[in-house]
Each structure stands twice: as C-alpha cells, then as structure tokens.
C-alpha cells in the first residue's frame, strides 16, 4: 500500500491503516502479533486465543494484510502471521512527528 512519500499519499496510507485498526477484532489480532515478536503466531494460535471462527479471522487478517500491517508466511502446513513493525513505526511516527509544530509547546521528547 505504500505508494509514495507525498503528504497526500502518506495521509491516505495512514487513514487506511487506522481504519483497519479501528475494528476491535483487528486491533486485538494486531496487538497479539505485536506481542508475539518476530516469530509471529500461527493462524490456529490466533484463532484459539481470540476464540473466533476461522472465516472471521481470515476476513480480519485480510484487512490487515491489505494495508501492510501484517504479513503471512506458509511453513509446511502452518500459516504464520507477523506484525510489520516497520509499517507500524511509520504509522506511529506519522502521528507524532509534527507534534506541536505550529504551537508554542515543548516537543514530546523534552517533556519531563
């Protein structure tokens, strides 16, 4: 989904990712994957932890994959999902990089 670096495309990408994370189930999936680290989690593990139907999980994973927040890799018969940390960091940075840019307040990293 990363199309370019113009402000307009960065806003569109951020909006799409935030929209995907705006669903409680997708947010729960993403948080589990972030907590799992680089090893990720098998789809079956996600389904068991979230206690949702496979088709429901598949639907929510597809939405997260479409906006590059999650990737999947098949290892034999296991489908492993991983959070895309680089995209997550880009999204968070997009939200905070210009904090107080037009105001007379202290930058976030200098607040005690």
Give a verbal description of the structure.
With 112 residues, this protein is α+β, with helices and mostly antiparallel strands. It has one domain (7-95): Arc Repressor Mutant, subunit A. The chain is built from 5 helices and 3 strands, in the order H-H-E-H-H-E-E-H. The protein has helices at 7-21, 24-36, 43-50, 54-66, 85-96, and strands spanning 41-42, 70-75, 78-83. The chain has a 3-stranded antiparallel sheet with strand order 1-3-2. A hairpin with a 2-residue loop joins strand 2 (70-75) and strand 3 (78-83).
Highest CATH level, the class: Mainly Alpha
> Structural class from helices and strands?
alpha+beta
The appropriate CATH architecture is Orthogonal Bundle
Number of helices: 5
> Main sheet, how many strands, which sense, barrel?
3 strands, antiparallel
Task: Quickly count the domains.
Answer: 1
**Residue runs with pLDDT of under 50 for 5 or more positions:** none
User: Into which percentage range does the β-strand content fall?
Assistant: 5-15%
**H/E topology pattern:** HHEHHEEH
Computed CA radius of gyration, to the nearest angstrom: 16 Å
Helical percent range?
40-55%
Total beta-strand segments:
3
Q: Strand sequence of the main sheet, in spatial order?
A: 1-3-2
How confident overall, as mean pLDDT? 90
Identify the CATH homologous superfamily: Winged helix-like DNA-binding domain superfamily/Winged helix DNA-binding domain
End-to-end Cα distance: 37 Å
Choose one word for the global shape.
elongated
CATH T-level topology:
Arc Repressor Mutant, subunit A
């Amino acid at each position: 989904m990363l199309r370019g670096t113009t402000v307009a495309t960065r806003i569109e990408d951020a909006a799409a990712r935030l929209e995907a994370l705006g669903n409680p189930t997708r947010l729960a999936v993403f948080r589990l994957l972030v907590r799992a680290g680089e090893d990720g989690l098998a789809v079956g593990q996600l389904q068991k932890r979230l206690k949702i139907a496979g088709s429901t999980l598949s639907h929510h994973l597809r939405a997260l994959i479409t906006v590059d927040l999650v990737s999947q890799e098949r290892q034999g018969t296991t489908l492993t999902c991983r959070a895309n940390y680089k995209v997550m960091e880009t999204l968070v940075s997009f939200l905070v990089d210009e904090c107080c840019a037009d105001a007379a307040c202290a930058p976030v990293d200098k607040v005690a």
